[in-house]
Amino acid sequence: MAEPILSVRGLETFFHPDEGVVRAVDGASFDLHPGRTLGIVGESGCGKSVTARSILRIVERPGRVEGGEVLLRRADGSVVDIVKLDAKGKDIRDIRGGEIGYVFQEPMSSLSAYHTIGNQLVEAIRLHRDLSKDAARARAIELLSMVGIPRPQQRVDSYSFELSGGLRQRVMIALALAAEPRILIADEPTTALDVTTQAQILELIRRIQRERNLAVILITHDMGVIAEMADTVAVMYLGKVVETGPVDTIFHAPKHPYTQALLRSIPSVLAKPLSRLATISGSIPHPYARPPGCPFHPRCEHFIKGTCDTAAPPVTTLATDHETRCFLYDVVAGARA
Ligand SMILES: Nc1ncnc2c1ncn2[C@@H]1O[C@H](COP(=O)(O)OP(=O)(O)O)[C@@H](O)[C@H]1O
Ligand code: SF4
Ligand SMILES: [Mg+2]
């Protein structure tokens, strides 16, 4: 496989509110390859969005990227560590939007209500490309057409509140791709949408990815979306990547108890439809009350006292492209069989 276009290594992003420390991203590592989709999955609060914001260096106060590396392979083959860049400097501003486009969950909060979508597109295009206003407007119409907006010549002059949720999300994707980035980060891009619109947006992302050989990081809490979209998967729990692997391995030979629990929580992959484990027992601990040892231990059916609650399990490599963080991964696999 080609060299990764983005390598995240031991990323640590912590928040320091008055009440304590929130280890939102706690040593996360994963690779993204050109033209492929990496799915990041986990329940709400597991650190997926903060991971995305860390890559873009837009973590808000009182949060800070405090450790690790985010290695971006640029178009000219050079590698830059995004963590080392000044969060307000020119380099990261060029990368943000220019090399890494991003779409967040809330199209309403990300689109301005006071500017037409055309003006927002023109601004995004001209931020990274040396085009005249007219050329940028023509390009904006092209982008709207590319993302499947009907009558783009007219729609270019409308405001975001005049559009449906699905159309707004299409505009967000057009904005993210305005400067032709090689990477797209989509954070829960379909969560706010109805099922039909969700399917259409996912299909749009897939089509654009194929046409432009985009590398995509797709963030979701939904294993169904992962099954449809991802080539490789990183499963996150409490800021840690607890399992990574190709999508087939994650679905058919998951090793981490949390991955297995996530899979049991979607109906389509339930082996026994009436299994009592259809939901994951317990809930995510409070951010300030992080369990010692393996963070999943209070909810884990394979928990072993004295081991899982005393030390953090190391990463175990099960195959060249399959890793997990669990002391008992082989025992768990046996129990599951
Ligand atoms: N601005 C903030 N201040 C304090 N804690 C935060 C802030 N933003 C996120 N967090 C915490 O970081 C953790 C990860 O959040 P997030 O990345 O948004 O999770 P996810 O996207 O997986 O639902 C959560 O515990 C959340 O409470
Ligand atoms: S390390 Fe222990 S508690 Fe954590 S997932 Fe593995 S078996 Fe469960
Ligand atoms: Mg999130």
The profile of the biggest β sheet is:
8 strands, mixed
Strand ordering within the main sheet: 6-7-8-3-9-10-12-11
Number of helices: 12
The H-and-E topology, N to C, reads as: EEEHEEHEHHHHHEHEHEEHHEEH
**Structural class label:** alpha/beta
**Bound small-molecule species:** adenosine-5'-diphosphate, iron/sulfur cluster, magnesium ion
Gap between N and C termini: 31 Å
What is the overall pLDDT average? Answer: 91
**Unreliable segments (pLDDT under 50, ≥5 consecutive)?**
273-277, 332-337
Structural shape: globular
- Strand proportion, as a percent range, falls in 15-25%
- Please tell me how large the radius of gyration is: 21 Å
Helicity range:
25-40%
Write a structural description.
With 337 residues, this protein is an alpha/beta fold. It contains 12 helices and 12 strands. Helix 4 packs across helix 5 and helix 5 crosses helix 7. The longest helix is centred in the middle third of the chain and has 18 residues. The protein is globular, with a radius of gyration of 21 Å. Bound molecules: adenosine-5'-diphosphate, iron/sulfur cluster (SF4) and magnesium ion. Magnesium ion (MG) binds next to helix 1.
Task: Describe the structure concisely for a colleague.
The chain has 12 helices and 12 strands. Helix 5 packs across helix 7 (165-176). Mean pLDDT is 91; it is low at 273-277 and 332-337.
